[in-house]
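Continuing the batch. This is chain 6 of the set; chains 1 through 5 are on the previous pages. Same settings as before, nothing changed between runs. Recording input and output for traceability.
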Amino acid sequence: MATTKIIETAPLHGIDLTVSDVRLPHQEPAPVRSVAPARLDGSGALAAEPGATEAISDWRDTADFPVPPRLRPDAEQERARLSSQSVDIMTALQTAAALNGTRDRGFQRKTLYATTTGVFRAPSNLPRDLHAGPFTPGAEYRAIVRFANAASTAQPDTEPDQRAVGVRITDDAGRVQDLTFTSGAAGNHARDAPQFNSTMKATLRMTGGGLAGRVIAIVGLLLREGPRQTLRLVRARRSAVDSGVSLAALRYYSRSPLEMGTKLVHLALLPIDDTAEALVHEARGARDGLGRDLCLRRSEGDVRFRIAAAEAPGLDDMSRRPRGPWVTVGEITLPRQRTSEAEMLNVAARLHGELAMHPFNVWEPGTLVPRGELNEILRGPVYAASARNSGRSDDPPATPSYGL
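Output for chain 6:
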């Protein structure tokens, strides 16, 4: 008699075992892209593109960018007001999203995948104008990498959401450099610090507020920002979310500028060209499918991203996107490693409770300094408040190595 059975190795797919030569989902190799030899330098690291040095020489130096009014010395009181407001909203947001009375991160509540065995490498032909911290020609260091959703709640991976990546580069001798990225557009959704706080207020209203909370959030945005800006913010949010796309195939952006060498740049974490977007079979439709997908891909080969820099458009409007070109300045590799999903989730839970990655953890003073209103007014105190409210301590920055 014919039988139809759900087999344990492919729990999301019904398989008729009476069909001859049926190919089970777990027998399909996870898609991993190899890098064309022409893209690599002599050490095997991703190389900066031909002509990168000449292109970067045309970029403005950091000192050439006008400083916006709120970042000038005489605006200290306004900066303090906005910073305090942001911390208060973050604390309220963490309280609203608390699970069983326990507060966690205000954003990026769910760790999707984490590893302590990533590798950072800088190309041997890194343009001189961009030498900064670990970004020196031929450098190689360990990297701790955490992928997360963007929401304030730990929702299933099947729910559309933005994704985020935190990278901690370490020499395992006391120096660290944190880099943070989110998916979506290269520019931020908010133009400046007041507008960012305005959108945080909307997020607070929506967190746990159901349909009524969403309506109140939109009305509040309309009153504070007006119809045109509200429409732009809503569209920016919708265009940034995704579902069913592998973490290995998304493009992630710093979304605000930082000083790198003599230049003011945006950074991006970009997948290798033609990386397959669809989740592997066993990961499709699963609550934790994004992490499962990366486990399976990594079991088949290296998962590689290039770190790229582009000239920042300015310091006055954080929603403006860099126009490019994007120049390769480094890479993050997750080396091939066969790891069970359960082992990965254990590491993810430990890193989630331990690390508080933020761009103010710099390799050495004065290198890779975060710039712009969102960084210089809001992010420092907000990151500190989020960590403090959720019981995390990352001072000095932790550099765990769990072998995964």
